[in-house]
Amino acid sequence: MEYANLVPVTGTILNISRGNDCCSQNLSLRAGSSIVNFTISPETRIPDNRQLRPGMAVTAFYDSRLPVPLIYPPQYRAQLIAVPGRNEQVMLNFFDRNLLAADRSLQLNIGRNTAIQTINGQNVTCRLGNQTLLVYYSATTRSLPPQTTPSKIVVLC
After folding, report:
1. Cut 0.85: pTM above it
2. What is the CA radius of gyration of the chain?
3. How big is the CA angle at 5 (ends 51 and 132), to the nearest 5 degrees?
4. CA angle 13-51-137, nearest 5°?
């Protein structure tokens, strides 16, 4: 999967309903003052295989290259759904060998308690640099670029 074209939408799940077949679902998300709908298919990746439910805060990522119907509210096919913890944010980005995001928006400092794993929950023992990472974090410094010690990193191979 090409992660560079994924666009995040963060919000709270309003409703989950059955999709067009028994293997898909429709998810309505309140993102700020608007509603965004997502289709969840068997190909949608959800780290830790979390069970989604109404009221849950999530960040859903869709592929900006895929066609979408011109309807309101917008409807996208979810490629990845992350479930951050309380007061956490998530970022999906390519990080260089110094763990600086490609857009220079975040610098990672790996702590002793930072959980590092693959999308299916396996431990990662290789270097994190020069890879696409899904980063869960709460506080950042006010420096440029902001720095954080993430609580969890998911390596997207």
Report:
1. yes
2. 16
3. 70
4. 70
- 3 state SS for 87-152: CCEEEEEEECCCCEECCCCCEECCCCCCEEEECCCCECCCCCCCEEEEEEECCCCCCCCCEECCCE
Q: Each residue of 8-55: pLDDT tens digit?
A: 999 999 999 998 899 999 999 999 999 999 999 999 999 988 999 999
| Mean local confidence (pLDDT), 91-111 | 97
Contacts with 29 (C-beta within 8 Å, 6 or more apart), sequence order: 9, 11, 12, 13, 14, 35, 36, 37, 38, 58, 60
Residue 21 three-state SS: coil
Listed residue (57, 59, 79, 58) closest to 68, CA to CA: 79
Phi first, then psi, for residue 49 (nearest 5°) are: 50, 45
Give the tens place of pLDDT for each residue, 141-153: 999 999 999 999 9
The Cα–Cα gap between 156 and 90 comes to 14
